[in-house]
Amino acid sequence: MPDFEPDARLIEDTYPITELPLCQLRLMNDARFPWLVLVPRRAGVSEVIELDEADQRQLWREATLAGSVLKECLTGDKLNIATLGNVVSQLHLHVILRRHDDDAWPAPVWGHGQASPYDLDTLASLRDRLLAEIEAIDWKAPA
């Protein structure tokens, strides 16, 4: 099986935050929406159903905990968790904290307007806040 590498589009559109037990945790480079992307480190996988049961459980654990981290660090009204893969077929999961007053509410964020990239200071500050919460969590699923 080939080595894992994130799809070029994911690398282009996101910033790496950290490595979790299963996934790379990345931040979408769009300051309009608090938006994490989890990319399971499994080469050649494009669907959740292609993961074994243990990886499926771990993916869901990491997604829900990532959502908790977003809600702890930032304010929001609704947490969206989704896989699409219509543009990037490599399995990845979106965890997006929505606000009633965000640019796309109540519609989906995909394809809505132009991304507003983070400035480096805001990016560094947000990454530090996320990492502080992430480091306090046991990310491994119970046996």
UniProtKB/TrEMBL annotation:
The keyword Hydrolase applies. Gene3D superfamilies: HIT-like (3.30.428.10). InterPro entries: HIT-like, HIT-like_sf, HIT_Hint. SUPFAM superfamilies: HIT-like. GO terms for molecular function: hydrolase activity. Residues 36-105 form the HIT domain. The keyword Ligase does not apply. Keywords: Hydrolase. This is Diadenosine tetraphosphate (Ap4A) hydrolase.
